[in-house]
């Protein structure tokens, strides 16, 4: 993956945006240290961050989930220590 320093990125922003839009992602570095990764909005890398609901339909939550371990918790608060 191509790395561009921040000064060159400012100078050639239009050209770099066109390249990113065509699918060529790149990294912008400041003083040689990578700072950001630029990718097209519709690229697989941009869509890859989706995590919420990734196991939908794969697990089942029991009806009494909110009461599981109720007796043990009550013993911790009410029992003899």
What does this structure look like?
- With 81 residues, this protein is α+β, with helices and mostly antiparallel strands.
- The protein has a domain at 1-41: 3-Layer(aba) Sandwich (YefM-like fold).
- 35% of the residues lie in helices and 19% in strands.
- The protein is built from four helices and three strands, in the order βααββαα.
- A three-stranded mixed sheet has the order 1-2-3.
- The protein is elongated and about 70 Å long.
- The termini are far apart.
- Helix coverage percent: 25-40%
Number of helices: 4
Silhouette: elongated
Strand content: 15-25%
Span of the ends, CA to CA: 60 Å
Q: Could you say what the CATH architecture of the domain at 1-41 is? A: 3-Layer(aba) Sandwich
User: What CATH first level of the domain at 1-41 would be assigned?
Assistant: Alpha Beta
Mean pLDDT: 87
Give a short synopsis of this structure.
The protein has 81 residues and is α+β, with helices and mostly antiparallel strands. It has helices at 6-11, 13-21, 44-47, 70-78, and strands spanning 2-5, 26-30, 33-38.
What's the structural blueprint in terms of helices and strands?
Blueprint: E1 2-5, H1 6-11, H2 13-21, E2 26-30, E3 33-38, H3 44-47, H4 70-78
Parallel strand pairs: 1-2
Antiparallel strand pairs: 2-3
Protein name: Antitoxin
Family: Belongs to the phD/YefM antitoxin family.
Function: Antitoxin component of a type II toxin-antitoxin (TA) system.
Task: Supply database-style keywords.
81 residues; YefM-like fold; 35% helix
């Amino acid at each position: 993956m191509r790395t561009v320093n921040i000064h060159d990125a400012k100078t050639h922003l239009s050209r770099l945006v066109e390249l990113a839009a065509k699918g060529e992602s790149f990294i912008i570095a400041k003083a040689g240290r990578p700072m950001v990764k630029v990718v097209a909005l519709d690229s697989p890398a941009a869509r890859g961050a989706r995590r919420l609901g990734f196991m939908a339909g794969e697990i089942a939550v029991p009806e009494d989930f909110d009461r599981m371990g109720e007796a043990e918790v009550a013993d911790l608060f009410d029992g003899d220590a």
